[in-house]
Amino acid sequence: MRALLIASLALPVAAFGAAAETRAPTEVQASYTAYWSGFSVATLDASLELGAEAYRVVGTMRTTGMLAVFIDGETTSYAEGRIRPAATPLGLAPERFGMEGRWRDRLRAVAMAWTGPNPEILRLEPANQEERDPVPPELQRGTVDALTALAGLVRQAATANRCDGSAEVFDGRRRSDFKAVTEGMETLPAHRWGSFAGPALRCRFEGRQIAGFWKEQNREEASKPRGGTAWFASPGPGLPMIPVRIEAESNWGTVYVHMTRASPGRLPLPTRQTLRQ
Q: What span, in angstroms and rounded, lies between the C-alpha atoms of 261 and 277?
C-alpha cells in the first residue's frame, strides 16, 4: 500500500511541470486526498516553481483515516533540475532528488544527484541489502527520478494538449518503466471528494517495475504493469494545467485521488529537521 500511494500521489506532484516554458516563473501549490474502498487513506500537499531554465517540485504525503490507524507514515519528496527541451528526451534534466520520511516509525531516506546522464546515490536508509535486491548499474544509466519523469511526460498537456511519452525511472531502490497516452477531452461532473468540475484532458498511464524487488517478493506478480487514468485541467484563472483527478489500479482495488485546493504559492524545500518533527 505504501508503494501504491507514493506512486499514485507522485503524479500530481510532478504534473505541475505542464506549465509553458515561455511564461514567467510560476509558483503553484495544491492539495489532494486519496480514497480506497470509500475511505480516506492519504493526503498530499505539493508545489512547483517553474522558470525558463529551472524547475523545483516538492510534495508531502501523509497517511490518514483508516490506513493511519494501522500504518502511520509521512514522506516528503523533492526534485530540482534544469529545463533542457533540445538536450534530453523528456526536456528536463534532473540535478537533485530526495525523499525522507517515517513509515511504521522507521526512517526511510534517499538522496541522489546528477552531474551527467547517470545518477549518484548519496544516501540510502535503510541500505538495500536489508530488504531489496540492488539495481544493476547498467539499468541505472540514463534514468531520471520519478518526479522529473512524470513532469516531462505531462508537459505536453500545456504545449500540445496531449500526454504521450515514456520514461525510464530509478528512485534509488526500484527501476521502473513508465508510459502515458492521450485519451481525449472529457467533462468531469462535480464530486463530493474534490473541488473540480468541468472539461479536462484524459490521460492513461502505466508503470512496470523491472528491478529492485523485495527479496521475498513474488517477481512475476510484482513486475505486472499497473495502470491508471489522470485528468488534467487548469483549476483556476492564471493556474497551469494540473491533475484534478486520478484513478490508479492496485491489487486491492482502485485508488481515487481528488484535488481539493489549488492556488499560487510554494512549499519550502524539506530538511532533515523538519522531516523528523
A: 25
The C-alpha cell that represents 59 in the structure block: 510534495
Residue 58 · residue 267 · CB < 8 Å = yes
Q: Which cell is 231 given?
A: 485528468
13-49: pLDDT as tens digits: 444 434 334 344 467 889 999 999 999 999 999 887 7
Residue 18 identity:
A
DSSP 134: P
- Predicted structure pTM score: 0.85
Show the CA angle centred on residue 180, arms to residues 144 and 44, nearest 5°: 70
d(CA 232, CA 129): 39
Q: Which of 126, 208, 128, 119 is nearest to 170 (CA)?
A: 119
| C-beta neighbour count of 126 within 10 angstroms | 13
